[in-house]
Amino acid sequence: MSVILEVSDLQKTFGAVVAAKDINVSVSEHETIGIIGANGAGKTTFVNMVTGYLKPTSGRIQFLGQDIIHLPPRDITCLGISRSFQVPQVFMSETVFENLLMAYAIVEDTGLAMLSPIMSEERASRVDAHLKRYQIEDYRDAVASTLPQGVRKLLDIAMAAVRSPRILMLDEPTSGISVEEKFPLMDIIMEALKQEDTTVLFIEHDMEIVERYVARVLAFYQGEIVCDAPTEEALVDEKVREFVIGEEYHRTRIERAGTETGNA
Ligand SMILES: Nc1ncnc2c1ncn2[C@@H]1O[C@H](COP(=O)(O)OP(=O)(O)OP(=O)(O)O)[C@@H](O)[C@H]1O
Ligand SMILES: [Mg+2]
């Protein structure tokens, strides 16, 4: 697998707060990566820097061999790194179809056309295919403000994933989603991204989601990556247990594993 994103010696300070320190990460194509860490650990700051929403204090970010630190968010999106935010960024008074149309226009059109998206048959059929990929075609003509929370979240992520980005970074895709809905929602998202060959990094507080959907974990603590390892290894790592997931979750995992193998 070839490296598509290389982050070197990244730092970010806000006055006396060190939000990112000595961040070194290499991401290869087709990886699935979970970004974990307690509140304030620096997870969103990391995503904001990679996607151009925050300028690092120092360091380097290369995407497909190109330096991207000086680029604004839209240029980074156009190059192939997209993201979603913790709070869905949909246009509440527009329909699901119109929202997606707008998402395509923002990436593909220039000038005023971005605000009044060009509607061609070809673009409409791409929007419809995308609706199907994210299994929200039944809501095509529903206004976003009327959508159930899970569907709005799917729409938001579908909007971030228009034009098959090479990398998609999601900030807490399951936040605000019920326990019953979280696995079906993640199944849809991960399958859609797999179909489009998208490398995915997502921030997540729910370790059940991390365990099930990612192969590699980056654990943040006070702005630093304290563990970068395959998921199985990361979830038993001492620092991860101490600073991120807590001993209680660790014990529950061991009990669960015992039950599954009939040893408990
Ligand atoms: N724009 C900003 N101005 C000042 N301080 C900031 C800013 N953004 C983040 N910080 C600080 O940087 C640190 C890291 O914040 P960040 O939002 O990256 O944490 P996080 O890991 O995403 O937390 P959460 O799980 O709560 O979303 C925190 O101490 C936060 O208060
Ligand atoms: Mg955050």
Overview of this structure, please?
The chain has 264 residues and is an alpha/beta fold. It has a single domain, classed as Rossmann fold (3-Layer(aba) Sandwich). The chain is 39% helix and 24% strand. It is built from nine helices and ten strands. The strands form two sheets. It has a six-stranded mixed sheet, with helices on both faces. Strand 4 and strand 5 form a beta hairpin. Helix 5 runs parallel beside helix 6. The termini are far apart. The mean pLDDT is 92. The structure holds adenosine-5'-triphosphate and magnesium ion (MG). Adenosine-5'-triphosphate binds next to strand 2 and helix 1.
Number of DSSP strand runs: 10
Q: Low-confidence spans: pLDDT under 50, at least 5 residues?
A: none
Write the CATH fold name. Rossmann fold
Number of domains: 1
Mean pLDDT: 92
Largest sheet: 6 strands, mixed
Question: What is the name of the CATH class?
Answer: Alpha Beta
Distance N terminus to C terminus?
A: 39 Å
| SSE ordering | EEEHEEHEHHHEHEHEEHH
Question: What form results from the Cα inertia axes?
Answer: globular
Strand content: 15-25%
